[in-house]
Each structure stands twice: as structure tokens, then as C-alpha cells.
Amino acid sequence: MAKSKTSKKWMDEHVNDPYVKRAQIDGYRSRASYKLIEINDKDQLIRQGDIVMDLGSAPGGWSQIVAPIVGQSGRVIASDILPMDSIIGVDFIQGDFTEEAVYDSILQTLNGAEVDTVISDMAPNMSGVNTTDQYASMYLVELALDMARNVLKPGGNFCAKVFQGVGYDDYMKEVRSSFTKVVVRKPAASRPRSREVYIVGKGFKR
């Protein structure tokens, strides 16, 4: 079956993407690793000894960056519906964290500790129907914010991928209500035509 022009264009773009090539050379699991590196350089979200929660973690591109930063004195708790190969220093819980059993498993892994930073690179499986995809993506980032509000320590940080569109402005208001400082980042590794941005919240207000 012939590939559609759209899928061929995406494949050509992906293969020729400089960040894809860099990730292969640097040994990163995903080009998304460079997005977090840039955000963390600017916003200092993650430090040695921190407890970090990585939502939508598979294939592990962000956890790969976080684990060496927090070091042996810190912890990374990662979760995704999809499987993820193990990473030293990362506790991975597979499943949908909106399900009680998975959520409880995450809390048990925390063992009463509060989290310094919640990061989320979650995105839905795209259907190609813009309205449907936007609602699905906003649902995921709302869940990420709910999780952050439940586990962050006062003064903690939050970073989540958001697609600009319906619901974006209301979501920004919600984030601003919970953090003292909120900025929007568009890392160089984000494709220019993509509507994705990263909302960064610092100074969690319980």
C-alpha cells in the first residue's frame, strides 16, 4: 500500500531532523530530550537530590536527562501507559495513572515523600481531527496539573507540554492560580510549525 504524501513528508522530515540525528549520536531515546535540557537550563527546574515525577515518560527521553541531574541522592518516578526500558535511578510504573490502582502504586512508590518537580511530555494518539485531538491533549495536561497539585511540595515546579488551541487560555489561568511564576517556552527542538509549547510553573502554592 502506498504511503500517503503526508506520512512520507513526516518520515522525510523525521529522518532529516537534526535533533533526531543528534539523539542517535548522543544516545538519547528521543529528540524530546533536548527540549527538557533547554527548559531546565533556562528555568532551573531540576537539581541534585530532587524528587521528580515524569508523566508520559516512554520511551524515556526525559527520565534519561533527569536521573543523572538528581543523582543518587534524588529520585525519579516515571509513569506511562506504554512500556519503557529501565533506566538506572528511575522507578517506572506502567499504566494509566487515572486508574486508582496505578495512582495508588505511584503514591506507594513515593512513600509519603513530596515531589520537587512534576514534568509531563504527554500527548494523545493523534487522530488527525484537530478539534478531537485538542480536547484529548487538554484532558491530559489537566490530569498532569491535578497530579502536580496532589504531590508537589510547597514551592515545587511544574512543566507540561500543551498544544495551543481551544482550552489553552483557561488552562493557563489554572496554572497561574497554583504557581507564583508561569512562563511559556518553545524550545528549539520543537518543530516550528507545531502548536506545542511548554508551560513552566515555579513556586507551587498549596
From TrEMBL:
EC numbers for this chain: 2.1.1.166
InterPro entries registered for this protein in UniProt: RNA_methyltr_RlmE (IPR050082), RNA_MeTrfase_FtsJ_dom (IPR002877), rRNA-MeTfrase_E (IPR015507), SAM-dependent_MTases_sf (IPR029063)
UniProt cross-references to Pfam families, sorted A to Z: FtsJ (PF01728)
Catalytic activity, as annotated: uridine(2552) in 23S rRNA + S-adenosyl-L-methionine = 2'-O-methyluridine(2552) in 23S rRNA + S-adenosyl-L-homocysteine + H(+)
Alphabetically ordered keywords of this record: Cytoplasm, Methyltransferase, rRNA processing, S-adenosyl-L-methionine, Transferase
Molecular-function annotations in GO: methyltransferase activity
Annotated positions binding S-adenosyl-L-methionine: 60, 62, 80, 96, 121
Primary site of residence: cytoplasm
Start and end residues of each Ribosomal RNA methyltransferase FtsJ domain: 28-204
Cell location: Cytoplasm
GO annotation, biological process: methylation
Domain of life: Bacteria
Keyword Protein biosynthesis attached: no
Active site: 161 (proton acceptor)
Family assignment from sequence similarity: Belongs to the class I-like SAM-binding methyltransferase superfamily. RNA methyltransferase RlmE family.
Protein role: Specifically methylates the uridine in position 2552 of 23S rRNA at the 2'-O position of the ribose in the fully assembled 50S ribosomal subunit.
Name of the protein this chain belongs to: Ribosomal RNA large subunit methyltransferase E
Organism this protein belongs to: Alteromonas aquimaris
Lineage, top ranks: Bacteria, Pseudomonadati, Pseudomonadota, Gammaproteobacteria, Alteromonadales
Gene that encodes it: rlmE
